[in-house]
Every structure is written in structure tokens, then in C-alpha cells.
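Hi V.,

You were right to ask for the full record rather than a summary. Here it is.
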Amino acid sequence: MHTSLACGKWSTIGCLNHHTQLFIGDVVSVTFYDMQGELVSLSFDYKITSLEQGEPHAWPRLVAEHINVHVPLVSAGKMTEQGLIVAYRNNEIFALQSSGICKAHVDFHCIAKCDERVVKNLDTYDYVYPENCENYNAGTKVLQPKTGHVYQCRPWPFNEFCRTNDDNKSMFEPGVGQSWAMAWQQI
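Predicted structure:
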């Protein structure tokens, strides 16, 4: 377990903030990306092998621990006053900025209780908020690490509020700002 994020600047690239019940045989796929595309050598599948592992409070912790042990330049957990800890819920995924890793995507492949259909995580997004906030436009989707939800920038003229600056950053912050719903729609 990491006690802090040391040795450089770290960025949030995704999160394990899902309340999905998984069953024996289900798989959590974590895919990492840089600006050129998928990083196959870092991406992995985590197979659920017991009912306890599939609990919504258990598998996010187990996947975060797997990331911390097996994926270089990436850490997962919850930032606290004591440093980075692996929690039972709301674990964020961080990458060392100098690594070039810019996104982590989590998918669920449910085979046990899902009638053998593949269930994809609906949380596909373009950026982790507030990354590249000056480029947000109508239709831009962002993952808000504070809520674990994905928000889409509303069409013109409301998309102007999606681009953050010092004056409106907290007011229109997706999911948490006082007037966030003027600029964003939760997906």
C-alpha cells in the first residue's frame, strides 16, 4: 500500500467508484491510455473468484491493490491527510504526469448473473475534470472524481459555462458547483 504519491506530479486518470455487484466469473477490465492510444502492456483483467470479492465494497479495493502492485507509474487509492490509502470505495486512479498515461477506463464483463451478456461501463468520458478545461465544448464528457459520475457539457449557449476559469470554476464544477446543472448534464 502506498502511503503517499511521491517522486513527481500525479494526475487523476480515472476512478473505481462503482457500486456494481459482481459475481463469480465476472471480470473487471482496466484499460490504460496515453495520447497515442491503448497501453496493452499495462491493461489487465481482474477476475472475480468468490462472492466476497464481488461485493461492491470489496472489488474496488482489490483492483486498486492490484494496480499498486502490478502497474508501474500508476497508483490507486483515496487521498487522505495521512496520504494515499486503499479504501473500500471511491478509489481514484493516479498516473505520474511524466509517464504520459492520461486515462484509465473500467469495464465490467458480467457472465455469471447477466445472462451471458457483456455489460460495459457507461462511464465513457473525454477527460477527467478539470483536465484540459479550456477545451470543453458542447458534448464534451468529463469524469468528476469527486462524485464518480460522468457529465456532458450542454449545447450552446450553456457550453460557455463548461470552460472553467478562476471566476466560475467552483460555481459550474460538474456535480458539485452551485450552478453546475446550467452547464452540465449527468450521464
